[in-house]
Amino acid sequence: MTVRVQESDFDVGAELDRLTRDNRRIGGLAVFVGLVRELHVRDGYHRDRIDALTLEHYPGMTEAALEEIEAEARRRWPLEATLIVHRYGRLEPGDRIVLVAVGSPHREAAFEACEFLVDWLKTKAPFWKLEDTPQGEKWVGAHAGDDQAAARWEKK
Amino acid sequence: MKVRYFAWMKRTVGVAEEEVAPPSNVTTVGELVAWLRERSGGHAEALAEGAAFGAAVDKRTVPFDAKLAGATEVAFFPPFTGG
């Protein structure tokens, strides 16, 4: 039920504790943490080392888009708790980018809804990544695999 | 109305945002794109026909045939790459 877009890091343990503390109906909590990778794979095999990643967002629209995605997950699965924390600004390899946590009475709904939220936020929430590489700055292009991952949740 | 650009489009256009007053025959997002292209070489390049970008009116994603009536902020941006 919570969406946050922030520059600062987050404490995964503290976030999960806060999310579940007062809710005894949660039987399963699925968690995804996205990290900055030091190697960016392009065109299938070519690898570029990155020194840093700068995430840009659209204040106001980004939060609204994440809230819509979260509301859609709650329509599809019986969820007791949801949390999306997404960072922006300059991040280095190993840094946390995003936290998605989903609590449900049963694990199946928690796993599925967590995967759904990650797939949809990658393609439907306004964030853009600029890589700082030894060869200069590069904007990250949309990834066809992400579109396919998001599309499998579209209702037929 | 205010027009905003994000990511590489901001750099190509040269500004993050600008106030514009399109003529009354510009009624849709697509017509606004065509009108903005005339403003500079950077605009023409960023908003080129066939370039992969999306649009939002008042912070909601819209198709290019969406009406501009009542819009206060229109944004253009490349495909999202968060997560």
Topology record:
The complex is a heterodimer of chains A (156) and B (83).
Chain A: E1 2-6, H1 12-20, E2 28-35, E3 39-42, E4 46-49, E5 52-57, H2 61-76, E6 81-87, E7 89-91, E8 96-104, H3 107-124, E9 127-133, E10 136-139, H4 144-151
Parallel strand pairs in A: 1-6
Antiparallel strand pairs in A: 2-8, 3-4, 5-7, 5-9, 6-8, 9-10
Helix pairs in contact in A: 2-3, 3-4
Chain B: E1 2-5, H1 8-13, E2 17-19, H2 29-37, H3 41-46, E3 54-57, E4 60-62, E5 73-77
Parallel strand pairs in B: 1-5
Antiparallel strand pairs in B: 1-2, 3-4, 3-5
Describe the structure.
The complex is a heterodimer of chains A (156) and B (83). Helix content of chain A is 33%, strand content 37%. Chain A is α+β, with helices and mostly antiparallel strands. Chain A has one domain: Aldehyde Oxidoreductase, domain 3, CATH 3.90.1170. In chain A, strands 1-6-8-2 form a 4-stranded mixed beta sheet, sandwiched between helices. In chain A, strands 7-5-9-10 form a 4-stranded antiparallel beta sheet, with no helix packed on it. In chain A, a hairpin with a 3-residue loop joins strand 3 and strand 4 (46-49). The relative contact order of chain A is 0.23. The model of chain A has no long low-confidence stretch (mean pLDDT 93). With 83 residues, chain B is an alpha+beta fold. In chain B, a hairpin with a 2-residue loop joins strand 3 and strand 4. The model of chain B has no long low-confidence stretch (mean pLDDT 96). Chain B has a single domain (2-71), classed as Roll (Ubiquitin-like (UB roll)). In chain B, strands 2-1-5-3-4 form a 5-stranded mixed beta sheet. Chain B starts with a strand and ends in a 6-residue tail after the last strand. Chain B is built from 3 helices and 5 strands. Chain B is 25% helix and 23% strand. Chain B is globular, with a radius of gyration of 12 Å. The chains are: A alpha+beta (156), B alpha+beta (83). The interface between A and B is medium-sized, with 29 and 17 residues.
